[in-house]
Amino acid sequence: MTKNNKTLFALAFLALFGFANAQENDEALRVEPDTTTSVNKTKLDGIAAVIGDYVILESDIDKTLIDLQSQGASTEDITRCGLLGKLMEDRLYAHQAVQDSLLVSDEQVNAQSDRQIQQLVAQVGSMEKVLKFYKKPDVESFRTELFEINKLRMLSEKMQSSIVEKIEVTPEEVRQFFNKIPEDERPVFGAELEIAQIVKQPVAPEEEKQKVINQLKEIRQDVLDNGASFNVKAILYSQDPGSKSRGGLYTMTKETQFVKEFKDVAFSLREGEISEPFESTFGYHIIFVEKVRGQERDIRHILMIPEIPKASVDKAVQELDSIRKHILDGKYTFADAALNFSDEKETKFDGGLLRNPINFDSRFELTKMDPTLYNQVRNLKDEEISRPVREDDPRGGAPKFKIMKISNRYDEHKADFAKDYIKIQELALREKQLKAIKKWMDEHIEDTYIHVNVDNKGCDFANNWVKE
Asked: Cα–Cα–Cα angle for 277, 279, 284, nearest 5°?
């Protein structure tokens, strides 16, 4: 299997896990609890379990296992009973979300489906190839199935979030959690680094900015006055790698993750309007609103990035070289230099210290570090300051340059309450959340109609699905 196909399967599994066949027959999705006739017994053939209003087919379990194997995941320790239990949990969450009116809007579901389709098309090259890959006859049937899949998944996630969202742990609970772990069973944390950086962002001169603005104005006027295709213009001129091949197309709602400047303009326009050029952190844009559907809209945009001349790049590198020399000469500390000279607002007021995006801790575990960041610091010795490093923006923005330093290094060690408080706090919170979920699950299994096929009643489920 090619790398692209493995990626496709990974995406598909995240979207389709456990819901692949459940919507093939809408009638089969709703089963009355008191059904007893022989006709309906025939109808239940191939059904692994029923949770409230939803069924799980035996084929759902088969396909889930195939999806995992196709991703290259090890299935050695995965059983049919284990997979069935996971699918049953998902359905119970979704069922109860509806009962509790924790609903998701069609706009949210459609936006998620559109993002997935855009990712798939970008990876395989065309919608036709996506349909062939998933053995779907047309776009509409694929969209319909994906909508139902995502709606169930999003309901499940919303229910799970509502169970744990208000759960917190106090420092005393963290201490008690840690102290009850036997000394020889305390977790071992891998080697970690604290990393600081000073960033210089080369700036395009005003004449380059104006050149881009003028070009965008000309494109806008050509579309408005001469009927030129915005789609074609985006393919020819846009510098956004995420949408260029699709003619600049994005489907978005107000919940979609775009920078504020972009979203503000997109939702200030009416259908058919084209914005004036505007600036974001990525460059300069114009937006064309192609279709409005309630809170959802199809927009096309063209991104153009002002050229940064070599002189600006050289200036940034020279400034960093000078800052580095002054720190090494003892003229000021790395933290003082970050505060006074770094262009990165997120780190300059904290001595240049990077924060782990997962938990906002200052430590990065070596085995879990982003590969790009790891490659930038892996050869640095303690207290050494790197030469200027170029970092390109994967989203298409301008490059930046930085010097880096390892502020602290922590070897692999057994958990220490004082040194590892944040990690221990996370473990304590997770344990408390799991207990809350287990309690919720037990209560709602008792209150919900559940039928497990006789062939599956012998499973050693983690939850009491057979209500024995």
From this structure: 60
Q: Which two tokens stand for residue 150?
A: 């995502």
What are 370-399's pLDDT values in tens digits? 888 999 998 999 889 999 999 987 766 678
Neighbour order of strands in the sheet with 450-452: 54-57, 47-51, 450-452
Residue 328 structure tokens: 């090494």
Backbone angles phi, psi at 419, to 5 degrees: -75, -30
- Between the two ends of the chain, the Cα-to-Cα distance in Å is 44
Q: How far apart are CA 17 and CA 67, in angstroms?
A: 8
Region label for 62, one of left (φ > 0), alpha (ψ between -120 and 50) or beta (otherwise): alpha
Average pLDDT of the chain, as a whole number: 86
Counting DSSP H helices and E strands in the chain, the numbers are 16, 13
HSE of 164, CA atoms in CB hemisphere, 13 A: 17
Distance of alpha carbon 373 from alpha carbon 356, whole angstroms = 11
> Greatest CA span in the chain, whole angstroms?
89
CA distances from 162 to 19, 441, 456 (A): 22, 13, 30
The pLDDT of residue 407 is 92
Token pair listed for 16: 């389709």
| CA distance readout (Å), 247 to 130, 230, 277, 426 | 18, 7, 17, 44
Compute the distance between CA of residue 431 and CA of residue 435 in angstroms, rounded to an integer. Answer: 6
pLDDT (0 to 100) of residue 284? 95
Residue 250 CA to residue 121 CA, distance in Å, equals 13
**Alpha helices, DSSP H, located in 71-138:** 80-99, 106-124, 127-133
Determine contact, residues 75/64, Cβ cutoff 8 Å: no
Taking residue 197's Cβ as centre, other Cβ atoms within 10 Å add up to 25
